[in-house]
Each structure stands twice: as C-alpha cells, then as structure tokens.
C-alpha cells in the first residue's frame, strides 16, 4: 500500500511542476484543471517524461533512494535550509543518515514523525510520515531538527568537517537512528 501512496505522491509532485498546486478535490471529480495542465493522456505522458528528464539532469546523482529523493541533492537542500555548511563531510553524514534509515516513507529520508502537513499519511506504526511533496518532507525534517532536542546534531553540522562527529551526535540524540549512521560511515571507510 505504501508503494502506491509513494507513486501517487510522486505523480502529484510532477504534475505540480507543470501546473502549480493540484485543484481542490470536488467530490472525486478531476474537473476544473488549471490552465496549462496536460489535457490528454499523451500530454501527461509527455509532461511526465520531461519531468523525469529534468529531475535526472538537475540532481547530483539522478538515482532516487527508497524515500523517492536524490539523497545527495536532498542532503544539500537540508543543510542549506539549516544554515549549515554544505561541505563534503556534511553531505556524507546526511546521506549516511538517509541510508541508515533506509525508509520508503515518501519524501522523508530521515524518517521523521513530524506532523502538521497537508495530505501527510502515516507510514508505519511508530508514526513516521509520508509527505505529499519534496518540499513538505524537507520542511518537516527541518522543523523537527530545530525543535530544541537536537542541538548536538546541529552543532556537529555547523562544524562541517567530520561526518563521524555528526554520526555520534545522532547516536547520542533522541532521534531513534541509534548508531546506524556510525555503522554506515564505518562501512564506507570513514
């Protein structure tokens, strides 16, 4: 079921890139699309192909992780939003964190339980969320890491020079990943 939700969320994200926000639901009808929206299935297929090509070109690696994001681009966007330096060490730390989580939760590579976003759904029994867009997933993770419980992680990221220091900060925090990031980094020879 969560695979279908992820695909639906990705389709909505792609559609929104071409027409803005999706129209409000009106009793299950899809009538009332905004101008510029693809009207036929071939138009949609063409728009989808263009979006996939644009995504591949605009992201650093092109390959999406289980959460439906390019892990390197998401790490850079996350660091930028945090005001942390976008260094090789920090990107390595964040992508290792994404790998340690290994989640399929849509647009939520760090597997946060942060709520309050339109259309979010519960991914698992722990409360990890699926988000309907890349931006919502990014916003949710930025919001939760700034809630006062993760100052040690933020401090390690501000240093920007030691992925293992970030991993140790994550392990010492209440995030729930434990020593997973340390294990990923160790397996990478970091």
In short:
With 190 residues, the protein is mainly α.
Q: Characterize the main sheet.
A: 2 strands, antiparallel
- Which oligomeric form is depicted? single chain
Name the poorly predicted regions: 18-42, 46-59
Shape: globular
Number of helices: 8
Element string (H = helix, E = strand)? HHHHEEHHHH
By DSSP, the count of extended strands is 2
Strand order of the largest sheet: 1-2
Strand share of the residues? under 5%
Domain count: 1
Q: Please compute the radius of gyration using only Cα atoms.
A: 18 Å
Mean pLDDT: 80
Helix content: 40-55%
Distance between the termini: 36 Å
- Structural category: mainly alpha
